[in-house]
Please model this.
Amino acid sequence: MFDITGQDISLLSDEDLRALIGRLCEAELRRHSLSPLAVTWGGHQNATDGGIDVRVAAETTVPATSAIPRSNVGFQVKAEDMPRGKILAEMRPDDILRASIQELATLRGSYIIVSSKGSVSYTALRERKRAMKDAVVDLPNPNDLHLDFYDRDRVATWVRDHHGIATWVARQTGRHRGPGTRPLLLGLADGFDVALNMVWIRIIQLHHEKKDPTPELEAAGRLVVEACEFDRRLNREAHELQEVVEACLVGPGGIATAERLFDRLKVSHSIYGLGFMDESTVLEALLAVQPLTVLNRLFVSAPPGDEGGMRGFFDNHRTVGSPLDRVPQTILLAWCDEDRVFRYPLIAARFCPFHKHQTTDVRSWKEVALALLERAPDQIAVLKQYIYQFRPWSYSGSQSAAWEANAKLLDVFENHADAELAEFARNEREKLRTTLDELRQEELKSERRDNERFE
Model:
């Protein structure tokens, strides 16, 4: 039997995904000696479907042990991620609940959204179900309607329960991956280093030839990345791994591998398995190639107060740069917009908000830092995080000079359109002037002591 994973499900086309759900429903009914003719699906994927792609209308009660929760079920199948905004738009076009969903509620049926590109944590799954409940809140009988959300991993679990359909999925995706397909090289001593170097060299060759990696090379790269365990320092391999990740984990086909690599990186981080340079290099690559997936795993899928186990990942961002610098600005802002009160100050605290000119030491705001501040619901909360990072973190040279250069950044807000923000910036500037005066006095005293010591 093929070991079907969520990554396999993500590779299915729109039509194949709908066919998969239809086949699963048929197989499920046969298992319980019910007629598969109760399942209807077909037609073009983009045809008007009233919000239902696969429908089950069984005449008898479906057993409680079945994966089909009610006798009447409507599946809306989407080969895309479905966050809250898309769920509401799908269920309530023009803010009107679809008639097909109202009908299912009348029948005490079930409405299920299937998303092959989403892989959600328990917390995110709960949020998506809450969005579905919010969409039907104006029903006279909302509790009569069962609602659920199947991400790609839940679909894969369902597929693994039907061996014949697992074979069909493997054939449709072209990913006939069984336990025996893992290259022997990766099982040898130092085999990972050799395999990584081989893939990396080929990627560099194609880059010089201005060619994209072939599907075969991407598949080989994913196999190599899957074998990375972070059980030792990477040294020079960190750069090679970065190149392979960014070349081979692109698109939907790389999501599952990126998730597994990040989970291993987080475990390694918790036991100090890698140096911060290697750790930052790998995290940068993952954020560059699968930003939403990694952002969600970093900050969303954790118990309150844990922040995804990411504490410490950004402790050295003033030294080596923040891994968040690799996330495209539009994606970062869109991600923050999903939970604006929490995410804007969270991100503001985890990257250096300004550039420092290499020769003049003049500071200037990063474009993304200003964009985050302007879009944040609480601009002062974001600016507070930026100001906290004005403190010099180097013990060489004059700290007062570095403080003063950083403090000048606040001048840009002196005449800001938001009067409250402008006043806050002016007050903080005055506080920094006082701190600077005290720091200069301390530096002068220290200099006199040093001079007296050598007289």
Residues 38 and 57 are 5 Å apart (CA to CA).
